[in-house]
Design a protein that fits this description.
With 389 residues, the chain is mainly α. It contains 14 helices and no strands. Helix 1 runs antiparallel to helix 4, helix 4 crosses helix 13 and helix 8 runs antiparallel to helix 12.
Length: 389
Amino acid sequence: MPAGLLALAIGGFGIGLTEFVIAGLLPEVADDFAVSEAAAGWLISGYALSVAVGAILLTAAVTRLPRKHVLLGLMVLFVVGNLLSAVASTYEVMLAGRVVAALCHGAFFGIGSVVAASMVPPAKRAGAIALMFGGLTIANVLGVPMGTFLGQQLGWRSTFWAITVIGVVALAAIAVLVPATADDDEPGDLRREVRAFRSGQVWLSLLMTVLGFGGMFGAFTYIAYTLTEVSGFASGAVPWLLVLFGAGLFVGNLLGGRAANVSVPRTLFVVLAALTVVMTFFALTAGSQVATVASLLLMGAFGFATVPGLQMRIMTYAGEAPTLASGANIAAFNVGNAMGAWLGGLTISAGLGYTSPIWVGAGLALGALLVLAVAEQTARPRRAREQAA
Protein backbone atom coordinates (compact mmCIF):
# COMPACT_ATOMS: atom_id res chain seq x y z
CA MET A 1 0.00 0.00 0.00
CA PRO A 2 1.46 3.40 -0.96
CA ALA A 3 2.14 5.51 2.13
CA GLY A 4 0.26 8.39 0.50
CA LEU A 5 -3.00 6.44 0.86
CA LEU A 6 -2.46 6.36 4.63
CA ALA A 7 -2.04 10.15 4.63
CA LEU A 8 -5.30 10.57 2.72
CA ALA A 9 -7.03 8.16 5.12
CA ILE A 10 -5.89 10.26 8.10
CA GLY A 11 -7.43 13.30 6.44
CA GLY A 12 -10.61 11.32 5.79
CA PHE A 13 -10.68 10.26 9.44
CA GLY A 14 -10.50 13.85 10.64
CA ILE A 15 -13.17 15.01 8.20
CA GLY A 16 -15.49 12.14 9.12
CA LEU A 17 -15.03 12.92 12.79
CA THR A 18 -15.88 16.58 12.20
CA GLU A 19 -19.05 15.69 10.34
CA PHE A 20 -20.51 13.11 12.71
CA VAL A 21 -19.22 13.77 16.25
CA ILE A 22 -21.28 16.96 16.66
CA ALA A 23 -24.49 14.89 16.88
CA GLY A 24 -23.41 13.39 20.20
CA LEU A 25 -22.38 16.77 21.61
CA LEU A 26 -25.33 18.84 20.40
CA PRO A 27 -27.04 19.16 23.81
CA GLU A 28 -23.83 20.47 25.43
CA VAL A 29 -23.22 22.92 22.60
CA ALA A 30 -26.83 24.17 22.69
CA ASP A 31 -26.66 24.70 26.46
CA ASP A 32 -23.32 26.52 26.25
CA PHE A 33 -24.56 28.99 23.65
CA ALA A 34 -28.11 29.13 25.06
CA VAL A 35 -29.75 28.31 21.73
CA SER A 36 -32.68 26.06 20.89
CA GLU A 37 -32.34 22.49 19.68
CA ALA A 38 -33.51 23.63 16.23
CA ALA A 39 -30.81 26.32 16.06
CA ALA A 40 -28.18 23.86 17.24
CA GLY A 41 -29.34 21.49 14.49
CA TRP A 42 -28.04 23.96 11.93
CA LEU A 43 -24.54 22.99 13.03
CA ILE A 44 -25.32 19.66 11.33
CA SER A 45 -27.56 20.67 8.42
CA GLY A 46 -25.47 23.78 7.69
CA TYR A 47 -22.41 21.55 7.48
CA ALA A 48 -24.12 19.17 5.04
CA LEU A 49 -25.24 22.00 2.77
CA SER A 50 -21.76 23.51 2.80
CA VAL A 51 -20.28 20.13 1.83
CA ALA A 52 -22.48 20.00 -1.27
CA VAL A 53 -21.60 23.59 -2.24
CA GLY A 54 -17.88 23.18 -1.62
CA ALA A 55 -17.74 19.86 -3.47
CA ILE A 56 -18.69 21.59 -6.72
CA LEU A 57 -17.72 25.27 -6.46
CA LEU A 58 -14.44 24.85 -4.59
CA THR A 59 -13.39 21.93 -6.79
CA ALA A 60 -14.14 24.02 -9.89
CA ALA A 61 -12.18 26.97 -8.49
CA VAL A 62 -9.00 24.93 -7.92
CA THR A 63 -9.08 22.84 -11.10
CA ARG A 64 -6.06 24.62 -12.59
CA LEU A 65 -3.90 24.09 -9.50
CA PRO A 66 -1.67 21.06 -8.75
CA ARG A 67 -3.74 18.47 -6.92
CA LYS A 68 -1.28 17.87 -4.08
CA HIS A 69 -1.11 21.60 -3.39
CA VAL A 70 -4.90 21.74 -3.39
CA LEU A 71 -5.11 18.90 -0.86
CA LEU A 72 -2.69 20.77 1.41
CA GLY A 73 -4.73 23.95 1.08
CA LEU A 74 -7.93 22.06 1.87
CA MET A 75 -6.42 20.63 5.05
CA VAL A 76 -5.38 24.14 6.10
CA LEU A 77 -9.02 25.16 5.61
CA PHE A 78 -10.06 22.16 7.70
CA VAL A 79 -7.70 23.11 10.54
CA VAL A 80 -8.87 26.75 10.50
CA GLY A 81 -12.54 25.73 10.58
CA ASN A 82 -12.15 23.39 13.53
CA LEU A 83 -9.94 25.88 15.37
CA LEU A 84 -12.72 28.45 14.98
CA SER A 85 -15.19 25.95 16.44
CA ALA A 86 -12.88 25.17 19.37
CA VAL A 87 -12.45 28.83 20.39
CA ALA A 88 -15.92 30.08 19.37
CA SER A 89 -17.31 32.58 21.85
CA THR A 90 -20.71 32.78 20.15
CA TYR A 91 -23.04 30.45 18.27
CA GLU A 92 -22.48 32.46 15.08
CA VAL A 93 -18.71 31.92 15.24
CA MET A 94 -19.27 28.22 15.88
CA LEU A 95 -21.54 27.99 12.83
CA ALA A 96 -18.96 29.85 10.74
CA GLY A 97 -16.31 27.36 11.83
CA ARG A 98 -18.54 24.48 10.81
CA VAL A 99 -19.15 26.03 7.39
CA VAL A 100 -15.42 26.66 6.81
CA ALA A 101 -14.52 23.09 7.77
CA ALA A 102 -17.32 21.69 5.60
CA LEU A 103 -16.17 23.52 2.48
CA CYS A 104 -13.08 21.32 2.30
CA HIS A 105 -15.01 18.05 2.78
CA GLY A 106 -16.38 17.43 -0.70
CA ALA A 107 -13.36 18.80 -2.55
CA PHE A 108 -10.98 16.72 -0.40
CA PHE A 109 -12.74 13.43 -1.11
CA GLY A 110 -13.38 14.34 -4.75
CA ILE A 111 -9.80 15.34 -5.54
CA GLY A 112 -8.43 12.75 -3.10
CA SER A 113 -10.19 10.00 -5.04
CA VAL A 114 -8.39 11.06 -8.22
CA VAL A 115 -5.03 11.28 -6.42
CA ALA A 116 -5.55 7.91 -4.67
CA ALA A 117 -6.36 6.24 -7.99
CA SER A 118 -3.22 7.72 -9.54
CA MET A 119 -0.99 6.03 -6.94
CA VAL A 120 -1.80 2.47 -8.00
CA PRO A 121 -2.17 0.42 -11.20
CA PRO A 122 -5.56 0.63 -12.95
CA ALA A 123 -6.67 -2.77 -11.65
CA LYS A 124 -6.36 -1.55 -8.03
CA ARG A 125 -7.88 1.93 -8.29
CA ALA A 126 -11.25 1.15 -6.67
CA GLY A 127 -9.42 -0.46 -3.76
CA ALA A 128 -7.22 2.64 -3.37
CA ILE A 129 -10.32 4.85 -3.22
CA ALA A 130 -11.79 2.48 -0.63
CA LEU A 131 -8.67 2.81 1.53
CA MET A 132 -8.98 6.59 1.49
CA PHE A 133 -12.65 6.37 2.48
CA GLY A 134 -11.58 3.84 5.14
CA GLY A 135 -10.58 6.81 7.29
CA LEU A 136 -14.17 8.05 7.14
CA THR A 137 -15.56 4.67 8.20
CA ILE A 138 -13.06 4.34 11.08
CA ALA A 139 -14.24 7.76 12.25
CA ASN A 140 -17.73 6.28 12.58
CA VAL A 141 -16.59 3.11 14.35
CA LEU A 142 -14.04 4.52 16.79
CA GLY A 143 -13.68 8.25 16.39
CA VAL A 144 -17.25 9.34 17.07
CA PRO A 145 -17.71 7.34 20.31
CA MET A 146 -14.27 8.43 21.58
CA GLY A 147 -14.84 12.05 20.52
CA THR A 148 -18.24 12.11 22.21
CA PHE A 149 -16.78 10.64 25.41
CA LEU A 150 -13.94 13.20 25.39
CA GLY A 151 -16.38 16.06 24.90
CA GLN A 152 -18.65 14.85 27.68
CA GLN A 153 -15.76 14.47 30.12
CA LEU A 154 -13.65 17.54 29.32
CA GLY A 155 -16.15 19.81 27.57
CA TRP A 156 -17.22 19.81 23.93
CA ARG A 157 -14.42 22.21 22.96
CA SER A 158 -11.82 19.56 23.81
CA THR A 159 -13.17 17.40 20.98
CA PHE A 160 -12.67 20.17 18.43
CA TRP A 161 -9.17 20.85 19.76
CA ALA A 162 -8.42 17.15 19.22
CA ILE A 163 -9.83 17.29 15.68
CA THR A 164 -7.66 20.35 14.98
CA VAL A 165 -4.59 18.36 16.01
CA ILE A 166 -5.65 15.48 13.75
CA GLY A 167 -5.92 18.01 10.91
CA VAL A 168 -2.37 19.20 11.52
CA VAL A 169 -1.12 15.59 11.50
CA ALA A 170 -2.98 14.92 8.22
CA LEU A 171 -1.54 18.10 6.72
CA ALA A 172 2.01 17.01 7.57
CA ALA A 173 1.40 13.45 6.33
CA ILE A 174 0.05 14.65 2.98
CA ALA A 175 2.97 17.04 2.57
CA VAL A 176 5.50 14.25 3.16
CA LEU A 177 3.84 11.10 1.83
CA VAL A 178 1.54 12.05 -1.07
CA PRO A 179 3.46 12.29 -4.35
CA ALA A 180 2.76 14.92 -6.97
CA THR A 181 0.73 13.32 -9.77
CA ALA A 182 1.74 13.44 -13.41
CA ASP A 183 -1.20 15.74 -14.07
CA ASP A 184 0.31 18.28 -11.70
CA ASP A 185 2.87 19.16 -14.37
CA GLU A 186 0.09 20.63 -16.50
CA PRO A 187 -2.60 23.07 -15.37
CA GLY A 188 -6.11 21.70 -15.42
CA ASP A 189 -8.75 22.95 -17.80
CA LEU A 190 -12.07 23.92 -16.21
CA ARG A 191 -13.85 23.87 -19.56
CA ARG A 192 -12.67 20.33 -20.15
CA GLU A 193 -13.83 19.33 -16.66
CA VAL A 194 -17.26 20.85 -17.31
CA ARG A 195 -17.51 19.07 -20.67
CA ALA A 196 -17.45 15.76 -18.78
CA PHE A 197 -21.02 16.56 -17.75
CA ARG A 198 -22.13 16.24 -21.37
CA SER A 199 -21.97 12.49 -20.80
CA GLY A 200 -25.31 10.95 -19.93
CA GLN A 201 -23.44 8.26 -18.00
CA VAL A 202 -22.02 10.89 -15.64
CA TRP A 203 -25.53 12.12 -14.84
CA LEU A 204 -26.84 8.57 -14.42
CA SER A 205 -23.95 7.89 -12.04
CA LEU A 206 -24.88 10.95 -9.98
CA LEU A 207 -28.51 9.82 -9.85
CA MET A 208 -27.40 6.36 -8.70
CA THR A 209 -25.40 7.95 -5.90
CA VAL A 210 -28.28 10.14 -4.74
CA LEU A 211 -30.72 7.21 -4.69
CA GLY A 212 -28.38 4.50 -3.35
CA PHE A 213 -26.83 6.54 -0.55
CA GLY A 214 -30.10 8.33 0.14
CA GLY A 215 -31.67 4.92 0.68
CA MET A 216 -29.22 3.89 3.37
CA PHE A 217 -29.15 7.21 5.22
CA GLY A 218 -32.88 7.71 4.90
CA ALA A 219 -33.24 4.57 6.98
CA PHE A 220 -30.32 5.42 9.27
CA THR A 221 -31.38 8.97 10.16
CA TYR A 222 -34.26 7.77 12.35
CA ILE A 223 -32.68 4.50 13.43
CA ALA A 224 -32.60 5.43 17.13
CA TYR A 225 -36.41 5.66 17.12
CA THR A 226 -36.68 2.32 15.33
CA LEU A 227 -34.33 0.64 17.80
CA THR A 228 -36.08 1.92 20.91
CA GLU A 229 -39.73 2.18 19.84
CA VAL A 230 -39.99 -0.85 17.53
CA SER A 231 -37.15 -3.24 18.39
CA GLY A 232 -37.45 -2.57 22.12
CA PHE A 233 -33.81 -1.78 22.90
CA ALA A 234 -32.99 0.46 25.86
CA SER A 235 -31.71 3.89 24.90
CA GLY A 236 -28.35 3.03 26.51
CA ALA A 237 -27.85 0.26 23.95
CA VAL A 238 -28.19 2.60 20.97
CA PRO A 239 -24.55 3.88 20.93
CA TRP A 240 -23.23 0.31 20.89
CA LEU A 241 -25.61 -0.66 18.13
CA LEU A 242 -24.37 2.34 16.14
CA VAL A 243 -20.81 1.10 16.61
CA LEU A 244 -21.99 -2.17 15.06
CA PHE A 245 -23.42 -0.22 12.14
CA GLY A 246 -20.09 1.61 11.82
CA ALA A 247 -18.25 -1.71 11.76
CA GLY A 248 -20.46 -2.69 8.85
CA LEU A 249 -19.51 0.52 7.06
CA PHE A 250 -15.81 -0.24 7.51
CA VAL A 251 -15.99 -3.85 6.29
CA GLY A 252 -18.35 -3.02 3.43
CA ASN A 253 -16.11 -0.20 2.20
CA LEU A 254 -13.03 -2.45 1.99
CA LEU A 255 -14.81 -5.43 0.45
CA GLY A 256 -16.70 -3.18 -1.96
CA GLY A 257 -13.41 -1.69 -3.10
CA ARG A 258 -11.86 -5.09 -3.72
CA ALA A 259 -14.90 -6.30 -5.63
CA ALA A 260 -15.04 -3.13 -7.74
CA ASN A 261 -11.40 -3.70 -8.73
CA VAL A 262 -12.66 -6.78 -10.57
CA SER A 263 -15.89 -5.33 -12.00
CA VAL A 264 -17.60 -2.07 -11.12
CA PRO A 265 -20.95 -2.86 -12.82
CA ARG A 266 -21.24 -6.36 -11.33
CA THR A 267 -20.31 -5.10 -7.87
CA LEU A 268 -22.89 -2.32 -7.96
CA PHE A 269 -25.61 -4.69 -9.19
CA VAL A 270 -24.94 -7.18 -6.39
CA VAL A 271 -24.53 -4.60 -3.64
CA LEU A 272 -27.58 -2.48 -4.54
CA ALA A 273 -29.76 -5.59 -4.87
CA ALA A 274 -28.50 -6.88 -1.52
CA LEU A 275 -29.08 -3.48 0.12
CA THR A 276 -32.69 -3.48 -1.15
CA VAL A 277 -33.28 -6.99 0.21
CA VAL A 278 -31.64 -6.25 3.58
CA MET A 279 -33.71 -3.11 4.18
CA THR A 280 -36.91 -4.88 3.16
CA PHE A 281 -36.06 -7.66 5.61
CA PHE A 282 -35.23 -5.06 8.29
CA ALA A 283 -38.57 -3.29 7.84
CA LEU A 284 -40.44 -6.59 8.12
CA THR A 285 -38.54 -7.93 11.15
CA ALA A 286 -37.68 -4.77 13.13
CA GLY A 287 -39.70 -6.12 16.06
CA SER A 288 -37.09 -8.85 16.55
CA GLN A 289 -33.90 -7.75 18.31
CA VAL A 290 -31.82 -10.56 16.82
CA ALA A 291 -32.97 -9.76 13.28
CA THR A 292 -32.44 -6.05 13.92
CA VAL A 293 -28.81 -6.56 14.96
CA ALA A 294 -28.11 -8.59 11.81
CA SER A 295 -29.94 -6.09 9.60
CA LEU A 296 -28.10 -3.13 11.08
CA LEU A 297 -24.70 -4.70 10.41
CA LEU A 298 -25.63 -5.74 6.86
CA MET A 299 -27.26 -2.39 6.05
CA GLY A 300 -24.05 -0.60 6.95
CA ALA A 301 -21.92 -3.10 5.03
CA PHE A 302 -23.90 -3.13 1.79
CA GLY A 303 -24.68 0.59 2.02
CA PHE A 304 -21.04 1.67 2.12
CA ALA A 305 -19.89 -1.10 -0.23
CA THR A 306 -21.44 1.06 -2.96
CA VAL A 307 -19.04 3.97 -2.37
CA PRO A 308 -15.85 2.81 -4.17
CA GLY A 309 -17.84 1.54 -7.15
CA LEU A 310 -19.96 4.67 -7.46
CA GLN A 311 -16.90 6.89 -7.21
CA MET A 312 -14.94 4.77 -9.69
CA ARG A 313 -17.84 4.68 -12.16
CA ILE A 314 -18.22 8.43 -12.46
CA MET A 315 -14.45 8.92 -12.74
CA THR A 316 -14.34 6.36 -15.55
CA TYR A 317 -17.09 8.01 -17.58
CA ALA A 318 -15.66 11.48 -16.95
CA GLY A 319 -12.63 10.29 -18.93
CA GLU A 320 -9.60 12.58 -18.85
CA ALA A 321 -11.42 15.19 -16.76
CA PRO A 322 -12.44 13.33 -13.58
CA THR A 323 -11.78 15.95 -10.90
CA LEU A 324 -14.98 18.03 -11.02
CA ALA A 325 -17.15 14.97 -11.69
CA SER A 326 -15.59 13.26 -8.69
CA GLY A 327 -16.36 16.29 -6.52
CA ALA A 328 -19.91 16.40 -7.85
CA ASN A 329 -20.36 12.78 -6.80
CA ILE A 330 -19.36 13.67 -3.23
CA ALA A 331 -22.01 16.39 -3.37
CA ALA A 332 -24.47 13.77 -4.62
CA PHE A 333 -23.76 11.61 -1.54
CA ASN A 334 -24.77 14.54 0.68
CA VAL A 335 -27.82 15.40 -1.44
CA GLY A 336 -28.87 11.77 -1.06
CA ASN A 337 -28.41 12.01 2.72
CA ALA A 338 -30.63 15.09 2.90
CA MET A 339 -33.27 13.68 0.55
CA GLY A 340 -33.47 10.34 2.35
CA ALA A 341 -33.79 12.03 5.74
CA TRP A 342 -36.49 14.38 4.40
CA LEU A 343 -38.57 11.58 2.86
CA GLY A 344 -38.20 9.45 5.97
CA GLY A 345 -39.37 12.36 8.10
CA LEU A 346 -42.42 12.82 5.88
CA THR A 347 -43.48 9.21 6.37
CA ILE A 348 -43.14 9.48 10.15
CA SER A 349 -45.10 12.73 10.17
CA ALA A 350 -47.79 10.99 8.12
CA GLY A 351 -48.20 8.48 10.96
CA LEU A 352 -46.73 5.50 9.09
CA GLY A 353 -44.53 4.47 12.02
CA TYR A 354 -40.83 4.21 12.75
CA THR A 355 -40.19 1.46 10.21
CA SER A 356 -41.48 3.65 7.37
CA PRO A 357 -38.08 5.33 6.75
CA ILE A 358 -36.61 1.86 6.21
CA TRP A 359 -39.25 1.16 3.57
CA VAL A 360 -38.34 4.50 1.97
CA GLY A 361 -34.69 3.43 2.01
CA ALA A 362 -35.50 0.12 0.35
CA GLY A 363 -37.46 1.95 -2.36
CA LEU A 364 -34.63 4.38 -3.04
CA ALA A 365 -32.07 1.55 -3.23
CA LEU A 366 -34.33 -0.26 -5.70
CA GLY A 367 -34.53 2.96 -7.71
CA ALA A 368 -30.73 3.11 -7.82
CA LEU A 369 -30.65 -0.50 -9.03
CA LEU A 370 -33.08 0.31 -11.85
CA VAL A 371 -31.04 3.37 -12.87
CA LEU A 372 -27.93 1.17 -12.95
CA ALA A 373 -29.71 -1.31 -15.22
CA VAL A 374 -30.67 1.49 -17.64
CA ALA A 375 -27.17 2.98 -17.48
CA GLU A 376 -25.42 -0.30 -18.23
CA GLN A 377 -27.80 -1.05 -21.09
CA THR A 378 -27.09 2.32 -22.71
CA ALA A 379 -23.34 1.95 -22.08
CA ARG A 380 -23.05 -1.29 -24.05
CA PRO A 381 -22.57 0.34 -27.49
CA ARG A 382 -19.67 2.45 -26.14
CA ARG A 383 -17.97 -0.58 -24.56
CA ALA A 384 -18.42 -2.53 -27.81
CA ARG A 385 -16.73 0.27 -29.78
CA GLU A 386 -13.85 0.41 -27.28
CA GLN A 387 -13.32 -3.35 -27.44
CA ALA A 388 -13.42 -3.29 -31.25
CA ALA A 389 -10.78 -0.54 -31.28
